[in-house]
Amino acid sequence: MSDVNDVSGVVVDAAIAVHRALGPGLLESVYQRCLCYELRQRGLRVDAEVPIPVRYGDLHIEDAYRVDLIVAGRVLVELKSVESLQPVHHKQVLTYLKLTRLSVGLSVLIKDGLVRLVHRADDLRVSEPPREPIR
Questions:
Q1: Cβ partners under 8 Å of residue 24, min gap 6
Q2: pLDDT over 70, % of the chain
Q3: pLDDT of 95-113, one tens digit each?
Q4: What is the Cα 102 distance to its own chain's centre?
């Protein structure tokens, strides 16, 4: 599966499946492991806790950040187990997209839904779907 929209669609579907099975209130690490399992069962490659390097002049910080998931080498996924997604969470994903040079990221709050973020060269924007809780 190479189309980024197809991959992100499978991630959304898998996140809904995990939430339906487990419900709210668990640790982010539990949701992460279950989502990895679900995505792999669907035939996707999933890399978890991917280090993101930062370079500043001659300084190289190899594991400055860690991305929760990169799915099929195309879609960055940040899971949150918080009361609600905040603008800082979107900015975090946009920063990760810039540093990884990926174009699509999902900020996923299992209990409420997700936000799809897109990064294209100089174009950083948040494209929010209609806000409907995942049931």
A1: 110, 111
A2: 81
A3: 999 999 999 988 877 666 5
A4: 11
